[in-house]
Amino acid sequence: MAKARDYRRDKAFEIWSEHNGDIQLIDIANELGISSGTVRGWKSKDKWHEKVNGALFSDKDLNAKGAPIGNSNAVKTGEYKTIFDDVFDDEELEMFAALDLTDVRAQLEETVRLYAMRERLLLKQIAEIKHGIGIADRVIVQKRMKVNETIKIKNKTTGTTSSINRENYKLVIDSITEKEKAQVNYLLKLEDSLTKVQKEKTKALLSLMDLH
To answer: Taking 80 as the threshold, does the pLDDT of residue 200 lie above it?
Structure first.
């Protein structure tokens, strides 16, 4: 069953239209008691600018050669919308629509922060492994084994001692496994991942510097 349309969605557009678009989305959000991201998603998904300017295009216009002004090719023709509708619910679609992919600087800054966080986590993991790398984890496997043993019995009456043989069972070490090698291999993988993350972070930083 489809989710009922939020009445505040139309109210948000009404407020925005009354101000001719000259109002902060966060002000609309505060008035309606919702997040600014939700308002931003509605604005993008419902094409507020096109509604106000009378620029809604027909299917014929959308299929014409080249994209109309304000159109982002496949993203707005429904080619991707069909895919996302199958995967995302309404709230997730609004969040997707709210992503401002036109702000390249903001996207690059976020990318750098994410790489920096990933780099820090990898460095922490590497330090923890190096701290205990000299202490090998030993796995000792024992098994129950039948053995022959000789015991001595003393006769209290005569004071003499005699020996008898009997079967017994004892736990003996079957194998010992060292885990230090596995730790070293994991450490090498982490260091390889760290190198890749640092390279990608450097690329993002250089791209960010080019914008200044």
So the answer is: yes
User: In this structure, are residues 133 and 184 in contact, taking their beta carbons and an 8 Å threshold?
Assistant: yes
With beta carbons less than 8 A apart as the criterion, state whether 143 and 171 touch. yes
pLDDT digits (tens, 9 = 90+) for 59-108: 444 444 444 434 444 443 344 444 455 556 666 666 666 666 667 777 88
Query: What gap in Å lies between CA 70 and CA 61, rounded to an integer?
Result: 12
CA 73 to chain CA mean position, Å: 29
More confident residue, 133 or 117: 117
Instruction: Give me the DSSP letters along the chain.
Output: -PPPPPHHHHHHHHHHHHTTT-S-HHHHHHHHTS-HHHHHHHHHHTTHHHHHHT-PPPHHHHHSSSPPTT--THHHHTHHHHHHHHH--HHHHHHHHH--TT-HHHHHHHHHHHHHHHHHHHHHHHHHHHHTTTS--EEEEEEEEEEEEEEEEE-TTT--EEEEEEEEEEEEEEEEEE-HHHHHHHHHHHHHHHHHHHHHHHHHHHHHHHH-
Structure tokens at 89: 């619910």
CA 91 – CA 6 distance, rounded (Å): 11
196 token code pair: 């890749």
Under a CB-based contact definition with an 8 Å cutoff, are residues 148 and 167 in contact? yes
Residue 143, pLDDT above cutoff 70: yes
pTM strictly above 0.85: no
